[in-house]
# Entry
Amino acid sequence: MTNIYEVLRRPIETEKSRYQGIKLHQYVFEVAGDATKAQIKQAVQDLFDVDVIRVNVVVSPAKRGRRGKTRRVVVRKPAYKKAMVTIRADQSIDTLGFGGVQG
# Structure
């Protein structure tokens, strides 16, 4: 990991993440697989100019399926790492204007 722009990949926008953003001041991002909590905290603070209170990290496993007569296992969606970032109650992040790497 060379810079903070490679740490955050994209915001994750779901009903649950929107609720967390409004009520709990938590924002969810997909992050690089080798990113640490300290790197995630530093990236969010530098890119969005907010004070990060806490960072929780979860590694989502790959979604697998079975195909064909042999019932072989194929990966439908790859594994990814996501971070729930809690910020101060009087601050917010506009994730709609986030210019992270798509893909």
